[in-house]
Amino acid sequence: MSRVLIAGESWVTQSTHIKGVDSFTVSSYVVGADPLRRALESRGHEVVHLPAHLVPAEFPGDAEALGEYDVIVLSDIGANSVQLSPQVFEQATPGQDRIAALRGWVGDGGGLLMVGGYLSFTGFEAKAAYRNTVLHEVLPVELLPEDDRVELPAGAHAQVTGAAHPALGGVEGDWPALLGYNRVRPRDGAEVLATINADPLVAVGTFGSGRSAVFTSDCSPHWAPTPFCEDWDGYARVFGGLIEWLAR
């Protein structure tokens, strides 16, 4: 059993209803991490979810805090949220360099998984911005300098290129369609285990004594529709395999 921290994968939606001359605003809070959490827990892993709104204040800031986990998962949470604690951003007081700490922790033997989304990799309007951080060199892929999203409204299927690799969890058969992903480029020395539209979908590699992996589509809607993240038994195999490979 591994202890896994999922950071991100939640959001607040606010909408304005306009009815004639009157209007009102409503808000909702959505947790997108549930399919991934359930899948990992079904394989015996302990999962801690740190929602996106708590990441700036509570993301682990040093090797000791990171060491409470075997694998860190960053999913749909931008580099700004990890880097800029309230102490730094609101009080202009030097604090911990949490991305540098995460880089060092992986180099010393930790496991890192980045899952795709609008605020993963380079992201929507390049706002995820991991290419501008030292975490870029930890990933088994190289990131684009511009908005890297590829929307696939008609859906597209993964092409598995490394079925025998343990990080895919022994999944067999065709994968359900996905509706988008972040475009990246494979890094020299990395292993691409699955592609989508000829771009990396699943890639793994090493950094120092540690391991890193990417799943460039999402773990929940909209890019990962219900047939993929809820109905397919291969979902738990793939993500379980990634976590177990990262945690050795």
Automatic annotation (TrEMBL):
<feature type="domain" description="Putative glutamine amidotransferase">
    <location>
        <begin position="3"/>
        <end position="247"/>
    </location>
</feature>
<dbReference type="Pfam" id="PF07090">
    <property type="entry name" value="GATase1_like"/>
</dbReference>
<dbReference type="InterPro" id="IPR029062">
    <property type="entry name" value="Class_I_gatase-like"/>
</dbReference>
<dbReference type="InterPro" id="IPR010768">
    <property type="entry name" value="GATase1-like"/>
</dbReference>
<protein>
    <submittedName>
        <fullName>Cytoplasmic protein</fullName>
    </submittedName>
</protein>
